Amino acid sequence: MDFTLQILVGLATVTLLGLGTMSMFAPRRMVKNFAIEPVGTAGLSTIRSVIGGLFITSVALLIFGLLTGQTLGFVVVALLLGIVAFGRIVGIVADGFDKAVIPPLVVELVIITVLMTAYVQLPTLLPI
Predict the structure, then answer these.
(1) Any idea what DSSP says for residue 99?
(2) CB under 8 Å to 31, separation ≥6 — which residues?
(3) For residue 127, is pLDDT > 80?
(4) Is the pTM of this model over 0.70?
(5) How far apart are CA 46 and CA 43, in angstroms?
(6) How many Å apart are CA 62 and CA 13, to the nearest integer?
(7) Cα-Cα-Cα-Cα dihedral sign, residues 88, 83, 15, 123
(8) Is 74 exposed, middle or buried (0-12, 13-18, 19+ CB in 10 A)?
């Protein structure tokens, strides 16, 4: 079970790495994925910095947890994604339902479940 959870966290890490890398280094390609339109250079900068930065920071926390056994970072990433998912739900309530919101919401909820399960079940090493 531990190995399976590590693999699942690894898959989540690769997913977030792909999104973060694309956001940071090819923000124009992410416009369709995020259903947003950047306004000029400042808009592209926002995709790179805010979206890319949050994804890549999440990747760093997950890699740190996988390599050191300090899995509290899994909770931090789950919390970030939980707030993102909550924002999607607020959007559905405030703006109306759009089926395009469901796939990313499901992915976020699955990753949250994986990370929280891994946090609870994987042995945590004591700080060095």
Answers:
(1) G
(2) 37, 38, 47
(3) no
(4) yes
(5) 5
(6) 6
(7) negative
(8) buried
